[in-house]
Amino acid sequence: MSMTFRELWTSVHGMIFGALFLLAFAGGLAGLYSMRPELLTAEGIAERVKRVKLGTGLMAVVAWVTVITGTYIIYPWYRAPAPEGLADLAAYPRSFLKADPAIAGWHSFGMEWKEHVAWLAPILATVVFYIVLKYGTQLAENRQMRNATMVIYMLAFASAAIAGLFGALITKAAPVM
Amino acid sequence: MTTLQATEQKVKTAVQEQAHVFTGAAAAAFIGSGIGVFVMGFLTTLSEASSGIANLLNWIKAAGPLSGKTGVSVIVWIVSWLILNNAWKGQDYDLKKAFTITLVLIGLGFLLTFPPFFVLFAAE
């Protein structure tokens, strides 16, 4: 049982950061949803804001770290061109996928969407964190702002989920080794 | 109005202003994020349509044009957010309108990053 350096990075990118992202999202969303004057006392709202700041802040940071490591560490290994005439393309995932029409869709659809849509997550998550930092307990009183923030937060999660799902499936079809 | 009454009025107004939640900064943040997402989608489709644009966006060779697409998107997002925030902070802005604009921009951004859509514009 062993892992190469590249497999280790791929696991950290997808599983460690992915798990942290999911954890932070769940905590942040539950906190935002329950931040209502009819459900909590003033002290309760103030305490909840601290947790929401932690959840949304962690999600934003993890989203940035994930896309930056993905784009500048793992993606170059994935897209490295195979030497001309090489028969075994297993070490060159993009070339490996494109060479076989039966699995080429994992690159032409899966990777092409994943590499772009993933970058929407940190932008949207950062804005949610900013709104929570700036408005804090005032989010409890302004339902319109709270709901809008929750929708943006869920869109950040959706874009990361698409990227994460395709990342896992592409790694299964053509792992970075 | 006596001096006392005027002072009381000033204090009352100050308290009301302090309690009021100005929505301009939130609107600027929402729309700024929509602009960033839209630009990401726009550049994805544009670099598919033009190899010249793709080459221009190839900032870091190892990551290819993705480095430029993401770099430009992040820069445009931050700059647009700063400009809008500067214009609207300390003011009210219709949040419903801001949110609608944001959702339209995000929707377009998602669509423009969707491969079956952007390959329609692929260079021959």
Which labels suit this protein?
heterodimer, A: 177 residues, mainly alpha, 7 helices, B: 124 residues, 77% helix, elongated
Description:
Chain A has helices at 5-33, 42-79, 93-99, 105-117, 120-135, 138-141, 143-173. Chain A is mainly α and 177 residues long. In chain A, helix 2 (42-79) runs antiparallel to helix 5 and helix 4 packs antiparallel against helix 7 (143-173). Chain A is elongated and about 70 Å long. Chain B has one domain (23-121). Chain B has helices at 3-19, 24-49, 51-56, 65-88, 95-112, 115-118. In chain B, helix 2 (24-49) runs parallel beside helix 5 (95-112). The radius of gyration of chain B is 22 Å and the shape is elongated. The model of chain B has no long low-confidence stretch (mean pLDDT 92). The A-B interface holds A 67, 71-72, 75-76, 79, 108-109, 112-113, 115-117, 119-120, 123-124, 126-127, 130-131, 134-135, 138, 141-142, 144-145, 148-149, 151-152, 155, 159 and B 21, 23, 25-26, 29-30, 32-33, 36-37, 40-41, 44, 60, 62-64, 66-67, 69-70, 73-74, 77, 81, 95-96, 99, 102-103, 106, 109-110, 113-116.
List low-confidence stretches of chain A: none
Oligomer: heterodimer
* CA-atom Rg of chain B in angstroms: 22 Å
What is the rounded Rg of chain A?
20 Å
Order of helices and strands of chain B: HHHHHH
Largest sheet of chain A: none
Helix content of chain B: over 70%
Q: What is the total number of structural domains of chain B?
A: 1
Biggest interface goes to: A-B, 34 and 37 residues
Shape of chain A: elongated
The DSSP helix count of chain A reads 7
Can you give the mean pLDDT of chain B?
92
Question: How do the SSEs of chain A run, as a string of H and E?
Answer: HHHHHHH
**Number of helix segments of chain B?**
6
* Overall mean confidence score, pLDDT of chain A: 94
